[in-house]
Structures
1.
Amino acid sequence: MGEEGLEPSPLARHDFESCASAIPPLAQYFLHLHLQLTIKFEFRQSNFCLLLVVSYNNLMSRFYNDSIFWVEVDKIKPNPFQPRREFDEAQLKSLADSIRQYGVLQALVVTRNELETEGGGLGVEYELVAGERRLRAARLAGLAQVPVLIRTGEETDLMKLELAIIENIQREDLSPVDRARAFDRLVREFNFKHHEIGKKVGKSREYVSNSLRILSLPEYIINALSENKITEGHTRPLMMLIDRPQEQETLFKEIIFKKLNVREAESIARHIAVERARKLIDQELIDIEDLFKEKLGTRVRIEKKEDGGRVTIDFFNKNDLLALLERIAVEKGVENMQTQDAETLAEDVAPLTDEEKILAEDQPKGEDDESLYSVTNFSI
């Protein structure tokens, strides 16, 4: 709405609100004239009265929709369909400082409901449609009233949800999780198709579908995204492992602890997918790999070669390594292994020198005893 013609109304109060009207004074005069005529002909000519009431209501609708009103902040209820769940306190404080200095520059959008008070009088309440950040910041700034646009004739739940989503999307003000949940409500509660949501918010169908896929992730990943521990880009490689929860959790831990960027995470996810496809021909190997993962609680990769193979166990820090050693000790029946002993063992592990490698290669190779590599044979 332009600012041209926005002048304070001569009425001190209009139906419980202060008003700055965009309707020309002549139109306002005829609007109130219709009200007087309705009262005058109420008991004389019912048909003419009905015509005037309809005309009056239409003018009142335009009067509300085209006018800016000043409403007490305490009378405005929050929008129950607000898609945003988290409001950054620092940003709200910054906005409150700006409002304290310059005022609320953009009017809030509300709906208006008249109701009967306990004393038999007429009261009014407002429900926010768009502008919750401005309302919260105005309260922080200590404002008694805020400018609002009153929507009439459109007070449906769908309209409230649509406007709240569109306002936030247009300002890129929704987190990925809040956006996905808002889209999900449009699908579940209002039977919207993905392309229909895309048209409403000015985005592609793929954008909507990819946003909704975020909700298929485990709750701990969704929470991490809400808390900005990972980015929306990180969810793509994690969704590639949606049917492999253990590997998905391990990749998530790597993203957090190793601070992987999106490209690195995608590379790992693709490698896992390729390795898994290659191993499908050897189901026994997959079962053994899964058993290792279940026992050790981390990613384990088994590579089979012509003359044996290699087992790779991932860990993220020293504590993870100690936990792995303790699990292996428990499996082998070493019940008296102390944490300090495990730490000493972890610290003493070092790669062989070149001389040690040569000596090891010179040793005669015979049949290995079954218990040769048992943990119980190691002194700690």
2.
Amino acid sequence: MNNLALTPSLRCGKTGGEKNTFRKKLFLQGDTITDFVYFAVMVFLVMMVASCGYSSKSLIRSNVRSIYIPIFDNNTFRRGYEFDLTKAVRDQILMRTRLHLVDKDEADSILFGKIISFDENVLIVNSHDNIVESRTSVRIEIRWVDKRTGRVIVERKNIAKPAEFITQRNETLTSSKNEALVNVARGIVDTLEEDW
């Protein structure tokens, strides 16, 4: 069993000058430059294989170039949230896609949205019954329509994203609401891209 622990050159019965040649052929046992090049090539190949199918480009179909986003409907008693959500969605569209925001008359497509619910749930209270940590959650539905054909491109009935806030860190319902709305806006753009 100890014979297996010998170097490759001795197991093959090679000695002297043949030993160095054999080591260089094995890579990883040759000189440092060869080892580095071999390692770099292997890392590059692994990264190329692992990244197949991924793209930093927008995944939205190329025949839709512009979008109109009217103010979302709001079925909750919390007024004004529809304006904040619409702004957050528009910002995410501009940041993450190649779509142009345009007026209704110029648009290839229209994104309709509706806030279905906005909930606040208490997670932790202290010994004096003061809220320490709470969670807000926004639930919406969207419908993206190709204005030229009238065909529905994407329709989702239940997109929900939560956000937590901790009062001891001076976080407020307002900051949590804003975070939840941005999370939902990101979710909307994800939905527009993944349905292609």
3.
Amino acid sequence: MLLVWSCVVGTLDNVIRPVLIRMGADLPLILILSGVIGGLIAFGMIGLFIGPVLLAVSWRLFSAWVHEVPAPGNDPDELLEELEEIEDSHK
């Protein structure tokens, strides 16, 4: 009986915890779920809390890096023209 209860509660915990974390964070549910399960496997009981936090920070950093806007005035065509002028002046 205790084994059945432990399986039910453990499964519900692994499903409900990511859903509750998802409500507080704007992250994909699969990322949170993998953070909870991966943290549990990697760090044990404390990994239930560390795993999602590490993945959330990593996700935010990656997202900021991917969606980074180039600085104004750095037109690639202008940079290529400047490089060609520099190369021509050194010939």
